[in-house]
Design brief:
Radius of gyration: 16 Å
CATH architecture: 2-Layer Sandwich
Strand content: 25-35%
CATH superfamily: START domain
Structural class: alpha+beta
Helix content: 10-25%
Shape: globular
CATH topology: Alpha-D-Glucose-1,6-Bisphosphate, Chain A, domain 4
Length: about 180
């Protein structure tokens, strides 16, 4: 990270290539089964009528979601954009995640952009640096799942089962224990 005052702490971008087609990568983000395969212990999308979508049903803009991590935290949010197989966006606490997918000669290029990050000292460390590190981990886990069928999360470790620690107050009071 540059130690320059012109650095924009309110957002970051992470990129990853996958040897998988765009539809498979999009489904990993837009279905509850996909999100559970690489990211959350439990995940569900609900349509605007509050009916839970099936594990393979693609979420659409306006849907809500609930997730439980492997560590003792939960999060609720909204799907903002769902344009298969190119763009999926959702709220993440007070922040926003945009996942853009592009065809690439080796499969699919994923561009993840997180915005709305608080720029106070706590936001810089827990919402910028921590989230960026976590997303790199989860994007690599998604690669492992899609390309090799192996989930890299340490789900059997009792204290920190995802190999990445997220503080309990990380989402600004929007999680429950």
């Amino acid at each position: 990270m540059p130690h320059d005052e012109t650095y924009d702490w309110s957002q970051f971008e992470v990129n990853m290539l996958y040897s998988a087609d765009q539809a498979a990568v999009f489904d990993a983000w837009s279905t509850s089964g996909g999100m559970e395969s690489f990211f959350a212990r439990r995940f569900n999308y609900k349509n605007t009528n509050s009916s839970e979508r099936s594990p393979t049903e693609i979420a659409v803009g306006g849907d809500s979601y609930w997730l439980a991590f492997h560590h003792p935290s939960e999060l609720e949010g909204k799907v903002l954009v769902s344009v298969p197989p190119h763009h999926f966006a959702f709220t993440f606490g007070q922040m926003q995640i945009d996942v853009h997918l592009h065809p690439h000669e080796r499969g699919t290029h994923l561009q993840l952009i997180q915005t709305g990050i608080p720029t106070d000292e706590n936001g810089k460390s827990s919402s910028h640096l921590n989230c960026r590190s976590c997303w790199i981990y989860y994007l690599l886990n998604l690669r492992s799942v899609l390309e090799h069928g192996h989930d890299l999360r340490d789900v059997d470790l009792p204290d920190n089962p995802v190999s990445i620690h997220i503080p309990h107050d990380f989402f600004g009071g929007s999680i429950t224990d």
